Structure formats: structure tokens, C-alpha cells
């Protein structure tokens, strides 16, 4: 199975937008993960609802601060056409429950989550991946 068969369409913020813009997008789209892209649609990073709570609210930062000041850099991504197993390996290695999916030019095409994979894989496989994503032990390389 290929990643595009499971991925969700991606809503992103463009660099230069504010923390408030990202929070509003999360609210309006009922999502907790927002890729941050450049003007050409290439992922630069991501922000989660947890990032907003810890990096913005808990630190007393302003809602009008640029989103790239609080995003997680070095996004984890795969390409359209790749096998879902590769996305799962990326999740395990990077300890991320979401992977951005990019087109042949490197532009954001969608997002695949561990929950998406759980819908089609066995509970044992998904459970093992979840354990590795949430573990405080060094990642196991598969």
C-alpha cells in the first residue's frame, strides 16, 4: 500500500504567518498538527498543539510571533508512491507520529499519521510503532 492511499490532505501555514494563524488553522480544521512551508509549498518544519502550549503559552510568548520561531525544524517526510512501511519506519526512527508526504518536486502533498496506519495494519504492528514513537529509549533501527 502506498502512502497516498492513507494520507490526509495537508493544511499548512506559510513562513511569516503568526502563531495565532497556526492556532486558528488548528481550530478551524480540527487538527493538532500543522506543517510550515515556504512560499513554494516545501516543508520547513511543523507545529503541534502541544508545541503551542509549551513553547508559546507556557513561555509567555506573543501570539503575533512568527510561527517559524516556535516550529520544530527538520521535518520528517517521504514521497508520493512510497510504501506505507517506509513511513512507519520513519515514524519509529524519528519518534514522530506524523510524516509529511511530498510530491516529486518536494512540495507538501499530504500528511500520514500513525492513526492512519492503525486503520489498515494489525494492532501488534501499530502497537510496536507507537511504543517506539513514545519511548524514552534510543530508537531501534529497522
> Under the CATH scheme, which class?
Alpha Beta
Number of strands: 7
Whole-Å distance between the termini? 19 Å
Q: What's the architecture in CATH terms?
A: Roll
- The ordered string of helix (H) and strand (E) elements is EHEEHEEHEEHH
Describe the main β-sheet briefly: 4 strands, mixed
Mean pLDDT across the residues is 88
Percent range for β-strand residues: 15-25%
Strand order across the biggest sheet? Answer: 1-2-3-4
Concise description?
The protein has helices at 19-29, 49-57, 84-94, 114-118, 123-134; strands spanning 13-14, 33-37, 43-48, 72-73, 77-79, 98-102, 108-113.
Overview of this structure, please?
The protein is α/β, with parallel strands linked by helices. The protein has one domain (3-134): CBS-domain (Roll). 34% of the residues lie in helices and 20% in strands. The strands form two sheets. Strands 1-2-3-4 form a four-stranded mixed β-sheet. The protein has a three-stranded mixed β-sheet with strand order 5-6-7. A hairpin with a 5-residue loop joins strand 2 (33-37) and strand 3 (43-48). Helix 3 (84-94) runs parallel beside helix 5.
Topology:
Blueprint: E1 13-14, H1 19-29, E2 33-37, E3 43-48, H2 49-57, E4 72-73, E5 77-79, H3 84-94, E6 98-102, E7 108-113, H4 114-118, H5 123-134
Parallel strand pairs: 1-2, 5-6
Antiparallel strand pairs: 2-3, 3-4, 6-7
Distinctive features:
globular; three-stranded mixed sheet; CBS-domain; 20% strand; four-stranded mixed sheet; 142 residues; alpha/beta
Amino acid at each position: 500500500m502506498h502512502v497516498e492511499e492513507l494520507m490526509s490532505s495537508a493544511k499548512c501555514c506559510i513562513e511569516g504567518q503568526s502563531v495565532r494563524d497556526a492556532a486558528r488553522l488548528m481550530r478551524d480544521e480540527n487538527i493538532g498538527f500543522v506543517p510550515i512551508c515556504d512560499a513554494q509549498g516545501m516543508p520547513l518544519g511543523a507545529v503541534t498543539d502541544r508545541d503551542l502550549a509549551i513553547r508559546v503559552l507556557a513561555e509567555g510568548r506573543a501570539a503575533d510571533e512568527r510561527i517559524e520561531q516556535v516550529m520544530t525544524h527538520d521535518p520528517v517526510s517521504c514521497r508520493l508512491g512510497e510504501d506505507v512501511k517506509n513511513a512507519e519506519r520513519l515514524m519509529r526512527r524519528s519518534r514522530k507520529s506524523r510524516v509529511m508526504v511530498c510530491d516529486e518536486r518536494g512540495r507538501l502533498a499530504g500528511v500520514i499519521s500513525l492513526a492512519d496506519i492503525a486503520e489498515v495494519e494489525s494492532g501488534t504492528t501499530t502497537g510496536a510503532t507507537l511504543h517506539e514513537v513514545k519511548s524514552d529509549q534510543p530508537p531501534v533501527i529497522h
